[in-house]
Specification:
CATH class: Alpha Beta
Number of helices: 3
Strand content: 35-45%
Number of strands: 10
CATH architecture: 3-Layer(aba) Sandwich
Order of helices and strands: EEHEHEEEHEEEE
Shape: globular
Radius of gyration: 16 Å
Largest sheet: 6 strands, mixed
Low-confidence stretches: none
Number of domains: 1
CATH topology: Rossmann fold
Bound molecules: 1-O-pyrophosphono-5-O-phosphono-alpha-D-ribofuranose, guanine
Length: 176
């Protein structure tokens, strides 16, 4: 068990499991997007570690760009998604792979998809390391899912609790 800020968390997904799953996703993306020169669009802050490891496993030419949006404060969503750093790349006619650490309710991703669609890309795909199926409220398709997890708050491998815990190399779940 570990303490992050003022809450206790228990080990949930080991760094070995993360590494092998991320590597499989990299192979899949490389096969599916061969010849398309995709853009890996990471969503800050949470996706930085997943994006970094995934990008190293993508063996085809790919651009990398970042957007920064946020809706969570502590362990709860504010229900209000804000763009804190916008797109700095033209997505017109491009194949865009959105890279997220987690899709929970789906609110953030839904917001991002509509933002990107305004730029008329050729294709949008979604890659998320984690998905909480019980919490997911939308019906957009998620193309690459690392792990489906229960509806409990997690930290580590980029994911934070109030800013803390992002640097942990494995994923932990909030203790009951
Ligand atoms: O599906 P949802 O319910 O919208 O939740 C998922 C979002 O929540 C987290 O971001 P957060 O707002 O905590 O910002 P961060 O990436 O800076 O940690 C996570 O990185 C996703 O972007
Ligand atoms: N750190 C963290 N951020 C989230 N954003 C949405 N769900 C979660 C979660 O379980 N953990």
């Amino acid at each position: 068990m570990i303490k992050v800020k003022d809450k206790d968390f228990v080990p949930f997904i080991s760094s070995d499991n993360l590494a092998s799953r991320v590597s499989q996703l990299g192979v899949q993306i490389s096969n599916d997007f061969a010849g398309e020169d995709p853009i890996l669009l990471g969503v800050l802050n949470g996706s930085f570690m997943f994006l970094s490891d995934l990008a190293k496993r993508v063996t085809i030419p790919a651009e990398i760009s970042l957007v920064k949006i946020a809706s969570y404060s502590g362990t709860v969503s504010t229900g209000d998604v804000k763009t804190l750093m916008g797109l700095d790349i033209d997505l017109t006619g491009r194949s865009v792979i959105i890279v997220e650490d987690i899709v929970d309710s789906g609110l953030t991703m839904d917001f991002l998809i509509s933002l990107i669609l305004k730029q008329t890309p050729k294709k949008i795909a979604i890659a998320t390391l984690l998905l909480k199926p019980e919490a997911f409220k939308y019906d957009f398709k998620i193309d690459y899912i690392g792990f489906e997890i229960p509806n409990k708050f997690v930290v580590g491998y980029g994911l934070d609790y109030d800013g803390w815990g992002r640097n942990l190399p494995e994923i932990y779940q909030l203790k009951n």
